[in-house]
Amino acid sequence: MSLPRYDHFINGARVPPASGDYFDTENPYTGEVWAHIARGNAADVDAAVAAAKAAFEGPWGGLTATRRGQLLRRLADLVIEHAPRLAEIEQRDNGKLSSEVVAQVRYMGEYFHYYAGLADKVESKVIPTDKPGVFTFTRYEAKGVVAIITPWNSPLTLTSWKLAPALAAGCVAVVKPSEFTSASMLEFAALFEQAGFPPGVVNVVTGFGAEVGEPLVAHPDVAHIGFTGGELAGKRIYEAAARNLKTVTLELGGKSPNIIFDDADLDQAVKGVVSGIFAASGQSCQAGSRVLVQESIHDELIRRLVEFVGTAKLGDPTRPDTQIGPIATRPQFEKVLDYIRIAREEGARCVLGGKARPDLGAGQFIEPTIFTGVDNRMRIAQEEVFGPVLCIIPFKDEADAIRIGNDILYGLAGAVWTRSLHRALYVTERLKAGTVWVNNYRATSFTTPFGGYKRSGIGRESGSDAIHEYLDTKSVWISTDLDVPNPFIRR
């Protein structure tokens, strides 16, 4: 039986790759190739950017903000309607639990609904000025063609975080999904045509970073880059964008502290730890991969955590009772195992897991792993593993917790577990992170900005803040004088 073949989506149509080449995409649970994906190059990027630019200067640019919102609302309804199908394809590509992927894709619809409503709510300002005889106001104008580059862990969700505000702002887009998870994005692209978007507003070019990502970032007609991924790739994109003074939104890595004080509800804290690191097999930029535990409850917390996590069921991610699925890619699987080896060599003590499970599926499974005896200076505590590997670090008091929590190059997220309102506010104020949860972990919403401090990124996604990432501000000065003042003197 022939396997599905996915072409690029350019100017509202399926377009074969200019090279004629395709690459395989595999199911990380079965290890089987299930589809062939178009292998793009610079010629495909040129075609996609040209289509986007024509749409921006033509039919899309001529729409009112209210009309853009109406199209986004139609799209949102279609996303919710087609969520099971889109989730099935994404799950087949990255091995995430079906139950989580379906919920994520449905929630994508809410993102587009939110920005549909926001599209015509971006209001300019009339500005009182100290200059007599002039009237001043601002305009917010779409930047134009934006490049959206997304990773393999939550491709559709993380695309929507960028694409929804970009479209609401009036921009057009060329999307480059991860080469490991391209199929769901190409299926999603077809919904734009059904929703009535003009051709070229959203384009998808698939392929590898050097062949598609680099020419897309460097393209002279791309005004802004939205990227989610690793720190090293983010730096390369930032450097390339800087050469042409392009703006960027970068959501990069994290090594987030999940801080548990001795007055916390330990049963709830254990659930928060599990949610923070073992959900999605730890393949999350916001993962709470460092658990900081107050010394007086250190041993008890470990006992409860090991007991709870030890019952987690690994296996087929399509089954509703499975709790931990496979690692999404073979390179990432090898990387996680390498970090487990490094942790042992550094002197950390593995109290749970620490091994691959070749008996499950195609063998791309790693047991949920917990290390104690971790010093925050160890590589296992400083570097992003992006897998089901947890470091437990003891602390003495609030000052010690804050010091350890901030002693990291990243600043994406963190959490505080305490019954004390004073302590919660005191610690959240001092943690250098873009998101801090109190007595919960991993909650996000289309209403609330998300992004990082330090090496965790630049800019914000979600919430009303995000739309301004895709807008330029123009100041307009209108003279009300009947006579021109002295032209040799600046007003």
From TrEMBL:
InterPro entries: Ald_DH/histidinol_DH (IPR016161), Ald_DH_C (IPR016163), Ald_DH_CS_GLU (IPR029510), Ald_DH_N (IPR016162), Aldehyde_DH_dom (IPR015590). Residues 19-476 form the Aldehyde dehydrogenase domain. This is Aldehyde dehydrogenase. The keyword Oxidoreductase applies. One of its GO terms (molecular function) is aldehyde dehydrogenase (NAD+) activity. Pfam families: Aldedh (PF00171). Signal peptide: none annotated. Its EC number is 1.2.1.3. Keywords: Oxidoreductase. The active site is at E251. The keyword Acetylation does not apply. Belongs to the aldehyde dehydrogenase family.
